[in-house]
Amino acid sequence: MSLIVEFETHDVRFPTSLLLDGSDAMNPDPDYSAAYVRIATDAGDGLEGHAFVFTIGRGNDVQVAAIDALAPYLVGQNAEEVLADLGGMWRRLQHDSQLRWLGPEKGVMHMAIGAVVNALWDLRAKREGKPLWRLLAELSPEELVDLVDFRYLSDALTRDEALELLRAAEPGRAERIALIEADGYPAYTTTPGWLGYSDEKLARLSREAVADGFRQIKLKVGASLDDDLRRLRIAREAVGPDIRIAVDANQRWDVSDAIEWMRALASFDIAWIEEPTSPDDVLGHAAIARAIAPIPVTTGEHCANRIMFKQFLQARALEVLQIDYTRVAGVNENIAILLLAAKFGVRVCPHAGGVGLCEGVQHLAMFDFVAVSGTLDGRMIEFVDHLHEHFVTPTVVRGGRYLAPSAPGAGTEMRAESIAEYEFRGARADA
Amino acid sequence: MSLIVEFETHDVRFPTSLLLDGSDAMNPDPDYSAAYVRIATDAGDGLEGHAFVFTIGRGNDVQVAAIDALAPYLVGQNAEEVLADLGGMWRRLQHDSQLRWLGPEKGVMHMAIGAVVNALWDLRAKREGKPLWRLLAELSPEELVDLVDFRYLSDALTRDEALELLRAAEPGRAERIALIEADGYPAYTTTPGWLGYSDEKLARLSREAVADGFRQIKLKVGASLDDDLRRLRIAREAVGPDIRIAVDANQRWDVSDAIEWMRALASFDIAWIEEPTSPDDVLGHAAIARAIAPIPVTTGEHCANRIMFKQFLQARALEVLQIDYTRVAGVNENIAILLLAAKFGVRVCPHAGGVGLCEGVQHLAMFDFVAVSGTLDGRMIEFVDHLHEHFVTPTVVRGGRYLAPSAPGAGTEMRAESIAEYEFRGARADA
After folding, report:
1. Is B284 in Cβ contact with A152 (below 8 Å)?
2. Which end of chain B has the smaller Cβ count within 10 Å, N or C?
3. How far is A72 from chain B (nearest CA, A)?
4. CATH class of A173-417
5. d(CA A187, CA B167)
């Protein structure tokens, strides 16, 4: 047996605001950052668990402090016992009666639990010598439902219904694993569409996206309707009629604004409108979805937890569901969300980008295909091509598809040199 | 002119878990705590702004770190300009594009904004020589709506509608101020009802509550149906048929549990069921409310923000709305919530207790009566009689009513001796 003996955090910030990568209507100058955690045991096998919460700069220190608050749950624990019952650990972290007050189940404290849980999954996958997607895809339906806390979900999805869904997807798992390993998982790209880019850069990157094999691009919208109309014309001209163009308002609008604005953009054959309004506004999204049908509404990257996703599904407030690797309480809660999506028959197109989000979330999408939904129909993972070089096993996207990771782990281990170089040591001169 | 020159935080924790005060179905052992902030200027007038986020122990340090992250917004600022435009300051804090990512508008970072905003209100009220409720009650309708950010609210309440509501309540303000100053504001008490108390203590405290003039008491429920039935019998016998008994499940149930459990308790003439399930579950509360009518459903102390309250009102998911002084982003957001409640014709019965929550929230209830709703019908503020001695101007409840505070400020200044004595310096031996 081994003990968890190290629990180390880092405040890692990349100065992305200097290049306007990642700029949108609500986030003009993000500094992509990671509140990072590393967990090590005394096993002497050199294996560690690495994970993080993605943030966009200021406040990354607060997120680190929240992760640090969870150290007492891990340090000194029997690693084998913890890793064999990650559902139990999830519940202990989530139901700490005092820490729970700080959410409950939302915001900084909730994401901190996600980082810790995901670091444990990274360690477990490394110990089992499998990439995370495959580890999850090979768990039995019983093992999978044991990972999920069905509290607050049972009016929409019970443990038994989840078991039934997973059992129904058991036939064909091996074929789907082979398919993923051969062909990867479809991607779409947001690289051309940041608001801070010039028209020329938008056109050039849109053409490059098609040449690279992507079948969907995404544009940020919501700052100026005139600009959006012009940029959509440019993008549509660059990609032609067969490539899907989605738009993303990053929560910029009120309900009536969203309806009006999207009616003005509808003629460009919009693949979806993402985050039209507050991520908390289930009923608002439902009203928008009804008003602008058939344009699909999507959200999720800021959706706080499985209880909010449940309501988005119950209210038919989204047609495409976007999970995020670090917004909710880790792999376990994302499995709950994938099960909810399957129950409601809604397709999942994960949010990614930032730093390290592609590396992590691809595992969940591939797991979903193999063991939950069993389909790739209309599904794709967001891809943005930056900051991958900081990871030990970076995402590989070729021909518009994520190639199946084969390295053991969750893909979320950052290179030690990158951590050392971008460790935050105080405010930048321009901050 | 003066500058804000000091921004000091404290991690203050009271070891309340040792006595089981505050124990309920989800919070067996709270240590009532305050993530505390003190703001001072160089005006030389000795006036300071004090406020805090209430937490229940572990993680109070994380909450303090989040408040600290906001110091750059205040230190060095012109105090008169800041205090004259607290709506503007609220927007600047809320729309920091990087910090916003940590919520958005929920959890640790959102409550931190609340503490900073509330400290500024405390300072402003002290400078104007008025208790906060009276300062607010004497602002014009235009000044009040300028304090509110209507983003994400306009499908339920526009600025113009809010103005109309406030103007309609202008006649009679002076009479209502006089009424509040003469008679105070009704209270109810939770003191008898903590789960950790013995039956004898429950009966004794219930009788004392009636003798003290309270017309409603509240019992914690949800751990065991048999216990709840027995404790309700004891309480009903102790208080007689004319005193209202509310119950509080502290988020213990799923939707179907809540319906079943409340049907079993219905014969005790329940004044309301509070927090039957997850505070995020608008649709779940709506389903419960429909199923157990006419028992009123109430929630709010964990409701993250005005957007969630908007939906609770739109979905008719609550019949009584409970604001909290430190859960949302301060006085400004609570004004938005009071306006929403007025628009939907729902009564407000503030959550209080903890440490310092009574001291703060009474101001909002009294302001609401004078300038927003204009009524006391069915309204009362929760009261729990502990930890008041730590405040410079503690809440005074007599004859079952909160007496109107007359001291300048928001009432949220803790005694320096208490801060020094209960400043947290590391884990307790039993933690």
Report:
1. yes
2. N
3. 10
4. alpha beta
5. 54
Who contacts A171 (Cβ-Cβ below 8 Å, separation ≥6)?
Answer: none
Q: Are B285 and B322 in contact (CB under 8 A)?
A: no
Residue range(s) occupied by CATH 3.20.20.120 in chain A: 173-417
Report the catalytic residues of A. Answer: 220, 351
Interface of A with B in 110-129 (CB under 8 A): 110-111
Residue range A109-162, pLDDT digits in tens? 999 999 999 999 999 999 999 999 999 999 999 999 999 999 999 999 999 999
Neighbouring C-beta atoms of residue B37, cutoff 10 Å: 28
A220-242 in b/e form (b: 16+ CB < 10 A) is bbbbeeeebeebbebbbebbeee
State whether residue B326 sits within 8 Å of chain A by CB: no
Residues of chain A with CATH 3.30.390.10: 4-129
Q: How many CB atoms lie within 10 A of CB B229?
A: 15
3-state secondary structure B214-269: CCEEEEECCCCHHHHHHHHHHHHHHHCCCCEEEEECCCCCCHHHHHHHHHHHHHHC
The answer to ipTM > 0.95 is yes
Q: Looking at the complex, does the CB of residue A310 fall below 8 Å from at least one CB of chain B? A: yes
User: Which residues in chain A have their CB less than 8 angstroms from residue B254's CB?
Assistant: 151-155
Cα atoms found within 13 Å of the Cα of residue A33, Cβ hemisphere only: 26
Each residue of B343-356: pLDDT tens digit?
Answer: 999 999 999 999 99
Question: Is B130 labeled as catalytic in the residue annotation?
Answer: no
Structure tokens at B164: 């109309």
Token match 């959102």: residue? Answer: B110
DSSP symbols for B301-326:
TT--SHHHHHHHHHTT--SEE---TT
**SS3 label, residue A137:** helix
CB pairs under 8 A between A and B: 194
User: Domain A4-129, CATH 3.30.390.10 — does that match?
Assistant: yes
Interface residue of A24, A62, A95, A355 to substitute, partner B, most B CBs within 10 Å? A62
Which run of H or of E encompasses A311?
helix A306-314
**Residues carrying CATH 3.30.390.10, chain B:** 4-130
Look up residue B180 and give its amino acid: I
